[in-house]
Amino acid sequence: MKRIFVFSYHGKETYHTGYYRLLSLANTLAENFEVYFIHGNINEVKKGENKENLIEIPLLYRNGILQKVYAFLKKKSPYSAKLLVIINYLFTKREIFDLQKETLFYFNKSEIKPAKDDIIFTSFPSLSAHNLGYELKKKYHSKLVLEYRDPGVFGYNLIYENEWMSRVRKSFLKKQEIRNLESADLLLTISDSIKKFFPERYYNNVHVVGNGFNNHKIDISLIRDNKQKFILSYLGSIYSSQLEDLTFFEAVKDFTVKYKVSPDRFLLKFIGINDVPVLNKIITRFGLENYTSILAKMPIEKAYDELYDSSMFFHLKYGNRKEVITTKQYEYLAFQKPILLPVSDDGDIAESIKKYNAGYICNHKKEIIEVLHISFKNHLEGKPLKINHTAEELYELSRQSQEEKLVNLMNEL
Question: pTM for the complete prediction?
């Protein structure tokens, strides 16, 4: 049986979308191949779980002084933490949290190690995962698959980077990325938009395996309406680029004032977000504290529990980036409640909402207030809008449909 080694930079304790996506891919691949799912861990490593053809191998990131300094700076001064990442890379050519040394050590002492006919599957971000894939291919002569959930040095600035940091990163890492691209036997990305960022010479080797909702975790029968309260929900991380345009928050404030909406009837809920002090300041600035609930990162099952009785979902566009299509869009679509894009990205998110006739795309504060008013009024009158998808559409939106494409590509490889 063909063997595939799937590497996740993130571990379970991060509750990171990338981890859940790769775990789902590994489980699907294990129906056809022998799969080793190797992921990083910040905390003490417990023995991995083994299923019939899926062997989990958690590896502990180095947790020395450098990592502790980074963790401290990230809480106190994110700018300084980013600067530390750059300085460390200049001297070591490694990320602060890097699994290469730990992985090679594990394979050297273990009977389990890649062989010539095996496949190494690594996902970006981060580049350290791709670098690890390159080193493993060079050492064991295995096949190499590089996946891009975000563009690397070719494409828009990553959503968690400002412009100067992106320029520095691309300047430092371009040589390594080209080396990795040249070494890959197969390149994957999540959308046609990101595929277009690759240099033309790689096009024939790039295949699209999109995001999707986790159909094994969502129970469609649990979707319901909260008759007492209108809940406007946002799922997942928020980045500084999403908080540059405050039109949405201005509109929510004006809506509550104009229509005398009380906090016991309307809730703005952020589910499973990273710690973003700027968001707290914005909520305070517009006097929305009593209307807002912010829930920290949590297991995906608990996050979904928070979505079942939502009335509407919303996005916040990623600055001027048009090519971002996150997993949350597929999850929103699966929960079949209307989606609000307060200020259009004029790109992939807007196109997805249009394609599935799934909600509202606005461009001005007045439009947002009107959508909130109509939706809130219909909700109180017991006539909430529901977005019904056919079984075929739900399958198309699921990870299962995309993972079947991946299985076929692995068989061909």
Answer: 0.89
